[in-house]
């Protein structure tokens, strides 16, 4: 595998074409591209919520710090799925140790591998709700674009688009105009609604026009963008196609639930879809939010006294 093929693998990962990556044939273990390809494939398994496959893929006797970090992240995700607190704590501690290890003068690994350790550790810390630790590990002054991408997502998740924008503007001063930088800009645009989502929508449409890319992730993102632009039937089309490629994906189904409620489906079909989603994903943020609003409405309604009818 030559460097151009590795570049293509990176682009596939950035755009969420995870199923394509997990089906790749790994190069010869002696090839210089073996470990980078292995890491992208393992991370694709994790992104597909299949951490056990990642752990089966990663060698347990590797001394590579990035491979160790990928295994620890996979263990964290697996433990989180089973709500195993001890295993969660143990995997996070492994990542903390690796993050400290790579800062030592005698640490092994090249700069790319060390940067990946920070990204994988920061991702786990953010998922665990340890926001300050995640940002400290990633380094808000970093010049690693993948770390910036995670930082931007963290800031957007805590409703700080202003800080996300600062990271993007800072990155433009040193980063090449590559795909990941464009994705960062589009992600911020999706959350903030800049320019009526025009840049975000154009970016997703451009990527979906690539005949070598099959990414339900990008289809879902464009579907969400179309919901926000009130293009409901077009959004449904994207979301249906995404689910055909990645059946049962929770976030895509959540977006389809929203589109259905806005008229993409008949009322009875929308209600059936919502009931099924609540049953299958009771802890999803959308379900929790609606439940909280229903409770708040009922509480307010119980305090409201209907005035007596005026008599003639």
UniProtKB/TrEMBL annotation:
It comes from the Eukaryota. GO terms for molecular function: structural molecule activity. It is a peripheral membrane protein. One of its GO terms (cellular component) is Golgi membrane. One of its GO terms (biological process) is endoplasmic reticulum to Golgi vesicle-mediated transport. It is found in: Cytoplasmic vesicle, COPI-coated vesicle membrane; Golgi apparatus membrane. Pfam families: Coatomer_E. Its main location: membrane. Keywords: Cytoplasm, Cytoplasmic vesicle, ER-Golgi transport, Golgi apparatus, Membrane, Protein transport, Transport. The coatomer is a cytosolic protein complex that binds to dilysine motifs and reversibly associates with Golgi non-clathrin-coated vesicles, which further mediate biosynthetic protein transport from the ER, via the Golgi up to the trans Golgi network. The coatomer complex is required for budding from Golgi membranes, and is essential for the retrograde Golgi-to-ER transport of dilysine-tagged proteins. Belongs to the COPE family. This is Coatomer subunit epsilon. It comes from Tricholomella constricta.
């Amino acid at each position: 595998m030559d460097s151009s093929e590795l570049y293509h693998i990176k682009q596939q990962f950035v755009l969420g074409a995870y199923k394509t990556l997990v089906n790749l044939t790994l190069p010869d273990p002696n090839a210089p591209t073996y470990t980078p390809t292995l890491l992208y494939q393992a991370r694709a398994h994790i992104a597909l919520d299949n951490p056990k496959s990642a752990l089966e893929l990663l060698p347990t006797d590797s001394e590579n710090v990035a491979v160790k970090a990928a295994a620890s992240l996979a263990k964290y995700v697996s433990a989180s799925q089973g709500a195993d607190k001890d295993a969660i704590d143990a995997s996070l501690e492994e990542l903390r140790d690796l993050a400290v290890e790579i800062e030592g003068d005698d640490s092994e690994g090249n700069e790319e591998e060390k940067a990946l350790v920070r990204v994988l550790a920061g991702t786990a810390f953010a998922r665990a709700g340890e926001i300050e630790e995640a940002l400290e590990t990633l380094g808000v002054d970093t010049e690693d674009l993948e770390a910036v991408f995670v930082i931007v997502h963290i800031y957007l998740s805590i409703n700080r688009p202003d800080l996300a924008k600062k990271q993007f503007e800072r990155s433009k001063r040193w980063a090449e105009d590559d795909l990941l930088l464009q994705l960062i800009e589009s992600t911020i645009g999706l959350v903030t609604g800049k320019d009526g989502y025009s840049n975000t929508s154009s970016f997703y449409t451009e990527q979906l026009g690539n005949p070598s890319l099959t990414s339900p992730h990008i289809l879902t993102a464009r579907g969400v963008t179309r919901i926000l632009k009130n293009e409901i039937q077009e959004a449904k089309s994207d979301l249906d196609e995404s689910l055909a490629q990645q059946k049962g994906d929770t976030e895509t189904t959540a977006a389809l639930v929203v589109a259905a409620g806005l008229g993409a489906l008949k009322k009875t079909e929308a209600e059936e879809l919502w009931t099924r989603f609540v049953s299958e994903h009771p802890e999803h943020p959308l379900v929790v939010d609606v439940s909280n609003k229903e409770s708040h409405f009922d509480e307010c309604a119980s305090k409201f006294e209907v005035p007596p009818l005026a008599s003639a």
